[in-house]
Design a protein that fits this description.
Length: 235
């Protein structure tokens, strides 16, 4: 049995399949998918449908799933006076912003599915956890999509609000937990100050950043928590 973490697939179905092959993912293994499965690429729904069938894949909510779930659920409603009345300025702006960050690709895929399939996808998105705490061997990990906004060392994880977990990246120069590693995605590692290894996993100060830029022409990275081995979809 091995435990892996990947993140920020952004609809890159081919990259997703490649990384599963690279790690030789087996039924006895465990895979944590740390948010932003959807948008930008044209395989978001295909990835979700594959993940839904794997009992050993554990999804964690990213900001793209959070927005997608709300918008897709609204799209499934019957269009009438009541639903039009619900489409206030805030919802409309959110919908338009989602399209700008790649939601249009997810909508196109979603609309090819029948209603039962659409409902199953939305139900699955609602099951994504906010974070995971994982112990592998003698090492302990906190896996969260973006970071721990308004962090204090004595604040329990259960106290964080959703927006503090999926929108704000951590300070990679700060050690958050002296006895645990913080695993995050959200911010492509190419954007981390001082990181010269573009689109590769970044490890420093008990941080493990694993968004390797799949949504921006990069690749998908995976890390094995048992031995620290790294795998990449395009290498």
């Amino acid at each position: 049995m091995a435990t892996y973490v990947i993140s920020d697939l952004h609809g890159n179905y081919e990259g997703y399949r490649k990384i599963l092959k690279k790690i030789n993912f087996q039924a006895k293994d465990v895979l944590y998918v740390n948010g932003d499965v959807v948008d930008r690429g044209n395989g978001s729904i295909k990835i979700l449908e594959h993940m839904m069938m794997q009992s050993n894949i554990y999804p964690i909510l990213g900001n793209h799933e959070y927005i997608a779930c709300q918008c897709l659920e609204f799209l499934m409603q019957e269009i009438n006076q009541d639903t039009i009345a619900q489409l206030d300025g805030g919802k409309l702006e959110g919908f338009l912003q989602w399209q700008k960050i790649g939601g249009d690709q997810t909508i196109k895929e979603f609309q090819t599915k029948d209603r039962d399939q659409q409902e199953a996808i939305i139900d699955y998105l609602k099951e994504f956890s906010y974070y995971e705490e994982v112990m592998v061997g003698n090492a302990s990990y906190v896996i969260v999509h973006a970071g721990l906004d308004h962090f204090t060392c004595d604040r329990p994880l259960s106290d964080y609000q959703l927006h503090e977990l999926i929108f704000h990246s951590p300070d990679y120069q700060q050690v958050y937990f002296p006895d645990r590693y913080l695993i995050t995605g959200h911010l492509p590692t190419r954007s981390i100050a001082g990181n010269d290894h573009v689109d590769h996993i970044y490890i420093a100060n008990r941080h493990i950043a694993i968004d390797c830029g799949s949504g921006y022409g990069g690749q998908i990275g995976a890390i094995c928590l048992d031995n620290g081995a790294q795998f990449y979809s395009e290498e």
